[in-house]
Amino acid sequence: MGDEPLPTPQVGRRTQLAAAGAVLASYAAVKSGRSAVLDRRAAKALAYPLGHRVDRVVAAGTDLGSVYGLAGVTAVLAATGRRRAALDVALAGLAAWGAAQGSKPLIGRERPYVVEGTDRLVSVPAGSSWPSGHVAVAGAMSSALVPHVGRGRRRWLHLGAAAVAVSRCYVGVHHFTDVVAGWGVGVLSEAATRGARRAWAQRRRR
């Protein structure tokens, strides 16, 4: 399986550059304090109550970006015979999770329910707020799946990652700039993982 050609990557250079820019811009804004106004506005926009039923659905759906969600998606892909896609998703998701967790000490940011007193609809998450690990994993999974689906379905992958990002703010555990950085970390992690695997496959074929 390791000698099989990898699917042609569909996440282009522009997207990767946008991802890198998102991480750097978010980091600079948070470190300088300039992110406060944007984060408050985003939190206010998402503070509109949608009812307990919606809260429960969002609180459950947000875990699509967790390591448990990653394991579930990988298992479903493998069980349906899509082993290449399962491997791509697993490696990209794990790389994104590791990168996000490793980046958290750079800022050590408090979560919004601590500093703003916003409602928290899920259990207390581990680690600091920046960047969002859930969004990083979701972004990496969606990027890894892009080469495996038709053009018409790719928008749903991106919408799924965006939904996880919005949900992390809605449930009160992340600031807006956290999820922006998380998306960037996810896209870059998938690109790095795919590049490393391609280089390894070429080396083995020599």
Describe the protein:
This protein has a single domain, classed as Vanadium-containing Chloroperoxidase, domain 1 (Up-down Bundle), CATH 1.20.144.10. Helix content is 68%, strand content 0%. The protein is built from nine helices and no strands. Helix 5 runs antiparallel to helix 7, helix 5 crosses helix 9 and helix 8 crosses helix 9.
Report on the biggest sheet.
Answer: none
- How many distinct domains? 1
Looking at CATH, the homologous superfamily is Phosphatidic acid phosphatase type 2/haloperoxidase
Beta-strand fraction estimate: under 5%
Rounded to the nearest angstrom, the distance between the terminal CA atoms is 16 Å
C-alpha-based Rg, rounded: 17 Å
The CATH class name reads: Mainly Alpha
Class inferred from helices and paired strands: mainly alpha
Total helix count?
9
pLDDT average, as an integer?
91
What low-confidence regions span 5 or more consecutive residues with pLDDT below 50?
1-6
Helical coverage, percent range? 55-70%
CATH topology: Vanadium-containing Chloroperoxidase, domain 1
CATH architecture: Up-down Bundle
Order of helices and strands: HHHHHHHHH
Label the overall shape.
globular
Strands, total number: 0
